[in-house]
Amino acid sequence: EKGTYPHYMLKEIDEQPLVMRKIIQTYQNEQGELTIAPEIINAMNDSDRVYIIAAGTSYHAGLVGKQFIEKIAKIPVEVHVASEFGYNMPLLSDKPLFIFISQSGETADSRAVLVSVKELGHRTLTITNVPGSTLSREADYTLLLHAGPEIAVASTKAYTAQLAVLSILAEVTAKSRNYTLGFDLVHELGIVANAMEVLCDSKELIEHISREFLSVTRNAFFIGRSVDHYVGLEGALKLKEISYIQAEGFAGGELKHGTIALIEEGTPIIALATQESVNLSIRGNVKEVVARGANPCIISMKGLEMDEDSFVIPEVHELLTPLISVIPMQLIAYYAALHRDCDVDKPRNLAKSVTVE
Ligand code: M6R
Predict the structure, then answer these.
(1) 124 Cβ closer than 6 Å to some ligand 1 atom
(2) pLDDT tens-place string over residues 267-283
(3) What is the pTM of this model?
(4) From atom 11 of ligand 1, which residue's Cα is the shortest distance away?
(5) Residues sharing a CB contact under 8 Å with residue 59, sequence separation 6 or more, in sequence order
(6) How far apart are CA 205 and CA 201, in angstroms?
(7) Which residues are CB-contacts of 260 (< 8 A; sequence separation ≥ 6)?
(8) ipTM beyond cut 0.90
């Protein structure tokens, strides 16, 4: 039930700090250490390459998940859009592990890949919010998101839950290999949960930003570098699916290779700057588009902020910034849809779970 909330989407955005705490709690053992079923960790350790298969928002979570698994557990990862995987199946490694990320656990495109890789005898793990869902039943192993039912068509809390579970999977695998991590994930995810709360309390400011940048425009661009690029892709998907504003996410460095031709007087550019290593280069991209008339909305992280920024998110561990920076993306899209009188929870032409290929 959505209770006093006008829309499920807003309720689900607000639930993110709670979901984060639930995940930390559920994946902890009595000693307070993160834990995952040993057979899943064995499957990670037995594999020489992980293939993440997903669609839409879950695919965007996979792009960030690849960074977690490669940087923390040091296993190479490929991320594939489920519907494309079958056409040009990559040359598989000797011991592949397939991870299916799906909120609903019912996405037909992902299931088609699951069926075909099982026929080839490969191991499969589903990360889903729905126990007993098709992808969960048919895979060898399942990890649950514990996000509670997600009703709004636009996926929000499932995305951050997917990232949290993927980071835990990476961490537990790394620990089983005796890698030194240099950070305590339980502690860092706790900081993430607190930061999420701060963001959920910043709705007025974000509504104002959404009105300022998106109330009249027909299009919008999201730019970022490194993981910020992946969050930009998710921001663009959220905005287009519920507000019908044509939105695209681009890597900051790709602008000059074509997209910059689309910049006109007043074109909104939402730029993410949460990574110290690329802070100056993304700001260079912002200057390039501003010189062509763009209207820049810079969302940065505390410690990296500059005077011209529209919104500053609280500081979290640099690997975990997507769990935080996505929240202003979700809220900007929500208010843009609201201001345009769109049906926020049930956008046209879309279904919550896509059970046809
Ligand atoms: O249930 P799934 O995670 O497999 O769904 C995948 C996509 O259909 C889904 O993420 C879709 O892109 C959402 N509407 C995005 O908000």
Answers:
(1) no
(2) 999 999 999 999 999 99
(3) 0.97
(4) 56
(5) 79, 81, 82, 101
(6) 9
(7) 288, 289, 292
(8) yes
